[in-house]
Write a structure and sequence with these properties.
single chain, alpha/beta, Rossmann fold, 5-stranded parallel beta sheet, two-stranded antiparallel sheet, 5 helices, binds iron/sulfur cluster
Length: 159
C-alpha cells in the first residue's frame, strides 16, 4: 500500500515537471514584481517551452508564485490557497519583499517574508527580479522535482 502511494507521488511529481501550472498571488507587492511575473508568462519569454502555464485557480495549480511582503491580512488567504492546492506542490517567493519583507518589514501591517505563513521551496531575489530569472528559478525547481521523483522510485524499487 505504501509502495503504491510512493509510486503515485513519483508519478504526480513527474507529471508536474512536464507542465507545471502556476498560480500567482500578491501578498502586498508594490506591483513591480507582479509586472515581471506577468511578463515572464508572455510569448516574449515563451514559458510554454517548459510547459509552464497560468492556472485559473489553486485546485489546478502545481506551483504558487508569491510576490510582496506578507501583510497580516494576506497571510490567512495565502494559507488557505496553500491548503486548496493539491499535493505535490511548491511555493516560490519572488522578489526581496516576498523573501524578507524588504524595507516594509517593520511596518505595522507586515509580518515579514511569505515563509512566515507557508513553507517556501525557492527564493528568487531581486527588486524586482527579471522575467528570465523567474523562469530560470522555476526550471531549477522542476529539476529538483524530477530528482525527487527518481529518488522515490528508487526507494520503492528497493523495498
Ligand atoms: S521586491 Fe521591489 S519590486 Fe518587488 S514588490 Fe518589493 S519593492 Fe516592489
Amino acid at each position: 500500500m505504501q509502495d503504491q502511494q510512493h509510486r503515485k507521488t513519483a508519478f504526480a511529481l513527474k507529471m508536474l515537471t512536464r507542465s507545471p501550472w502556476i498560480m500567482h498571488f500578491n501578498t502586498g507587492a508594490c506591483n513591480g514584481c507582479d509586472i515581471e511575473v506577468v511578463a515572464a508568462l508572455t510569448p516574449l519569454y515563451d514559458p510554454e517551452r517548459f510547459g509552464i502555464k497560468l492556472a485559473p485557480n489553486p485546485r489546478h495549480a502545481d506551483i504558487i508564485v508569491v510576490t510582496g511582503a506578507l501583510t497580516k491580512k494576506a497571510a490567512e488567504r495565502l494559507r488557505r490557497l496553500y491548503e486548496q492546492t493539491p499535493d505535490p506542490k511548491y511555493v516560490v517567493a519572488v522578489g526581496t519583499c516576498a523573501i524578507s519583507g524588504n524595507v516594509f518589514r517593520h511596518s505595522y501591517s507586515v509580518i515579514g517574508g511569505v515563509d512566515k505563513a507557508v513553507p517556501v521551496d525557492l527564493y528568487i531575489p531581486g527588486c524586482p527580479p527579471r522575467p528570465d530569472a523567474i523562469i530560470q528559478g522555476i526550471v531549477e525547481l522542476l529539476k529538483r522535482a524530477r530528482k525527487e521523483a527518481e529518488e522515490i522510485e528508487a526507494e520503492a524499487a528497493e523495498d
